[in-house]
User: What shape does this take?
Amino acid sequence: MRKASIFAVFVTIVIITVILAFYNIDRVEVSASTKLSLLPIADAMVREDYPDRNYGVWNDMTIGRSWNLGNYFSNSFAYVKFDLSSLNSQTVIESAYLDLFQYVRSDYASGDYVVKVARANGNWSENSITWGNKPSFSGAYSSISVGGYGGQWFNPPLKYTFDVTELVQQWVGNGSNQGLVLYKDGGNYGGFWCSRNYNNSTCFATTQPRLTITFGQNHAPYTPRPTSPLNMISFGGDSSTQGAEVTMKVTDLGDPDGNLEGTWFYYKRVQDADWEVSPIRTGKQTAQFTKFLPDGNWEWKARSQDDMTLWGAYSTTFTFTIDTTSPEYPIMVSEPEFSVGHENEVMIVRCSDELSRNVYYELDVASGEDCNTPNQGLGWQQSRVFLVTNLDDDTLYCFKGRAKDEFGNTTGWSESIQTRQDSTYPKIKNVVLDQEVFSPNDDGVRDSINLSFDIDEKYFKDWSVQVIDLEGEVVRTVIGTTAGASFQWNGSDFDGKILADGPYRLLLKASDVAGNTSEDSSLTVTIDNQPSVLNISQPKNGTWTNSDKIKISGIAESSATVRVNGNKYSVDENGVFEGYEIIDIGENDFTIEARDIAGNFDSKTIIVNKELDKPNAYYIGPSGVISNKQPIVEFSLSDKLTDFQSGLDADTFELNIVFPGGDSLPLMVA
Assistant: This one.
């Protein structure tokens, strides 16, 4: 009779199920082992004839086939799950037994049938599992032959015990507990078994499925303590092997239970993902493992296992380096053919080393035309730059280098480089400037300056002349490569334009192939394109005189040369010049020329007239007593034309009235 069909019984079952689910673990402690009794956390049957129906809350489970109203049910399985979370990886399962209770045989099914225990392969829920969505199962971990005759009832229900030790060991070992499945192969036999949802009529609290586990608590072996090699340990120095034998050592081995099986060493390159594992080492207190390992950065650790395959913890991981390879072959940074001064910075190209954090360098110095005279050695040092001092002038030096890593692996010597040391500066001699002031105006006079010089230097390279204005700007540069040379400058800048008037500094330098530069040689020249100053003080142009000579004077530049009709006049510091010239009767032409120091020229021409005879004046009238208050006075003027034919100058005469007392009254001046 199915009690689950009565509502009151159903409610009672649900309430009792919830209460027992909270108290579903019963522990029994023993001295040597621990016994754990577990009730299911879920159970349900699935039926082939009702593939979409869930039977999770029923108070029984059908296993195999059962008779109902003259027909056999289709096949049925029972799924049961227990909570094993109280067991851990150090639990040793000694035994595990499953108790199931059958309360009735299938009607008209006489004869024995076999119930088997399998492993559920997927997750499932008591309230949702059906024949259609049930997970698959596998294995046959236990089986029992069930006897009786068809329709036989058992009150109390009959207990059957299955040995599921192997299955529980697997669950504890890999944590894959999805429950177990009870099933029957083929045939029409079957029976009704109690579930955890008992009804206190056919099944009871004591007839729930029960899993009893006996287990011991195994203790992991002690964690090994590495003693060598530890961090920062390095092996190397022998470039012939490309590797080294390394012995990894641990101590403090043991097991609390006294069942140490052995110790394993794990090692790998730092950059690798997978560890290599040594064969077992069976030392009871200490163990070691020796292995030839190639160059590289390595790390290692160890752990122990007991004879029940329980692993202890890994030791601390330590790293070490094997480096038996020298750094990259060194190359010297090339030097110029000549180097300046008495010291020199020599550099080695950086030598890479895959494993060494530091690379050290050494420099060898030799001298002589064949580089066969040892001079000095520098190193070892981390810097690739060497300052070599106390070098002799005009001497050939050879440099070569080598490198080593922090493990002592050393390269051979590099190829040698050479340079000649030159500490002598060029000397500029015999500097001659033809003129300090010039006028680049294409008049053919002082249009350019010429600077000549000699350079005393064994390894001469070039010279340069820079033209620098008052603002300090370089306006023209000329470079030459002959030791005895001259520089002609027409006053033009970089673009060929004539520069403005004013002073300019000529900066002359010389350099040799080593880079030595002479002391500066500086001169000043002046561009002056302004016309020369020339002012005539006397005589005025067109002057008349009866003298035999005339004074000519004026002002010019103090440095100018003044000539009058070719005669050179002296010019004082204020620019004043004067002199006398003989004149002839008649018209005399005088050309005054002035040329300044820059070659600028100016000239002026004046005319001086010479006449010996005086002009004649004759009074005509009126005469006697004059009553007219405005008389008309008449007179005549004349000049002798035979000596110069100059004639009269009508614009220059005087008319005066002379009184008896001697006073004079000018009437006209023209």
Residues 7-22 form the longest helix (16 residues). The radius of gyration is 66 Å. The CA atoms of residues 31 and 173 lie 24 Å apart. The helical segments are 7-22, 165-174.
